[in-house]
Amino acid sequence: xxxxxxxxxxxxxxxxxxxxxxxxxxxxxxxxxxxxxxxxxxxxxxxxxxxxxxxxxxxxxxxxxxxxxxxxxxxxxxxxxxxxxxxxxxxxxxxxxxxxxxxxxxxxxxxxxxxxxxxxxxxxxxxxxxxxxxxxxxxxxxxxxxxxxxxxxxxxxxxxxxxxxxxxxxxxxxxxxxxxxxxxxxxxxxxxxxxxxxxxxxxxxxxxxxxxxxxxxxxxxxxxxxxxxxxxxxxxxxxxxxxxxxxxxxxxxxxxxxxxxxxxxxxxxxxxxxxxxxxxxxxxxxxxxxxxxxxxxxxxxxxxxxxxxxxxxxxxxxxx
Amino acid sequence: xxxxxxxxxxxxxxxxxxxxxxxxxxxxxxxxxxxxxxxxxxxxxxxxxxxxxxxxxxxxxxxxxxxxxxxxxxxxxxxxxxxxxxxxxxxxxxxxxxxxxxxxxxxxxxxxxxxxxxxxxxxxxxxxxxxxxxxxxxxxxxxxxxxxxxxxxxxxxxxxxxxxxxxxxxxxxxxxxxxxxxxxxxxxxxxxxxxxxxxxxxxxxxxxxxxxxxxxxxxxxxxxxxxxxxxxxxxxxxxxxxxxxxxxxxxxxxxxxxxxxxxxxxxxxxxxxxxxxxxxxxxxxxxxxxxx
Lengths: 320, 292
Prior knowledge:
- By secondary structure, chain A is of the alpha/beta class.
- Chain A has two domains: 15-237, P-loop containing nucleotide triphosphate hydrolases (Rossmann fold, 3-Layer(aba) Sandwich); 259-318, no CATH class.
- Helices cover 39% and strands 20% of the residues of chain A.
- Chain A has helices spanning 60-67, 91-97, 114-124, 129-142, 158-170, 188-203, 216-219, 239-243, 246-251, 258-268, 280-290, 299-311, 314-318, and strands at 15-27, 33-45, 49-53, 75-80, 83-84, 98-101, 176-180, 208-212, 224-229, 232-237.
- In chain A, the strands form two sheets. A six-stranded mixed beta sheet of chain A has the order 6-7-8-3-9-10, with helices on both faces. A four-stranded antiparallel beta sheet of chain A has the order 2-1-4-5, covered by helices on one side.
- In chain A, strand 4 and strand 5 form a beta hairpin.
- By secondary structure, chain B is α/β, with parallel strands linked by helices.
- Chain B has two domains: 32-56 and 69-242, P-loop containing nucleotide triphosphate hydrolases (Rossmann fold); 246-292, no CATH class.
- In chain B, helix 4 crosses helix 6.
- The longest helix of chain B is centred in the middle third of the chain and has 18 residues, at 176-193.
- Chain B is globular.
């Protein structure tokens, strides 16, 4: 794991967004100011899938909004493909390159049909009609909503609405999509739909993805995870590096995914489970592959365990 | 004493071309003091069902009886609404008063209590959701964080001292800490105040941890009703309905599919770890399993 450093080498072509020593404050009551970001440095590489996690108020959303010049740092710089967000002349080029999807799909849809909604961005920047058609078609295909062109956005499910919002961004042909808790208001089916669409954009279409989330299981699927606490990036690395530090995560009120927590429990009793085992599916795969030579548990032990389970109060059992 | 729902059906937009059957032949009894988890796909009828529990919606057929009183025969629903507190999704959107004190005290004031009694109820209700009366009472709800605002809204329901509290996705879009805090308060409300809780949730991990009993709804019907262990072990059926199962249950299910002899009802992280220990290192795990 690399602990966040502020030393940045200049102009690496693989770096799409370079956040360097950024501080940002919001105005608060009676003229005071609240510091949301403090000396944050982070580099986002072309084509990567970066998850940003952290408790409420840790600065995740503020950082996300700095990535496409919705917010401009008070000090430090955010550079997108060599363009500084602090330069007003670059703002439109940056916003075309880095699109943003927010938490509440209902706040992001503007038109009365799906295709008009997706076309809204390209229309605004004067893309010719024929090309808009093409872009809308491709964008809807990318998020799995072909055939829904004429539907009314407000009659779609949450997951579909959020995918329309993503398609609207895609129609701008961005290099990077920043998603700020895109699944927070969705049900499990909607969450799955959106996650699959986002993962596909990254893997198949090569889009750079920055995904701010409260769901650790979503972060576990990223290439890299940055953890924020109190306005700073406090950990970053591969999911396996970050989520294996259960105690450190707990200190900042985050949980590792349940698979990682079970793996951690097993490690404590001397069973070595590799660090890349994060989700329950990873764990199931690992155990199935490695326990082939072990004996199956005896019927007796199984019965004993289930009896214990039945008599203990659920909440007592789960705590510890 | 209980909330009894008998053969309840509800149709939205009855008599219009858009008529849609939301509930069909639902029967259910919520016992005093129990903790009930209510799960189901979006559109399965969960919210419609809970809105019948305090007479907010009226059944098109069937009946709802709260503590022996048939709601359709009551002239006024005031007493029922006091007894059954309903917390909607995103309840913080319903805050409207200038101060937290006035917002939480809105219900109690309408009961004709003295100022001192109202204040005492507000203080207690805020305490139940983990907010300090002195710190927040005189502040505007709109200065608070999202999680705090939600707790103020819930305190407004608790200030009516209900016997049954129905919460419709109280943890939606909170962060992990906010979720944990919220659930801790709900659990304490149930344990210490003896309030019956109906928790509507999409998070199966929460429901598995807290509920005594789980109800599953699908397309307007109640399709499963049992202990968390019984309900969640039917992984194939839940998956077919588009529902998640708790992650621990999915792990056990996957192991079972790979041919391991895994008992049912394993729900907690510690139980899973013990079980896996016994799979990977048989002979050494008996003691651990016993400690669960």
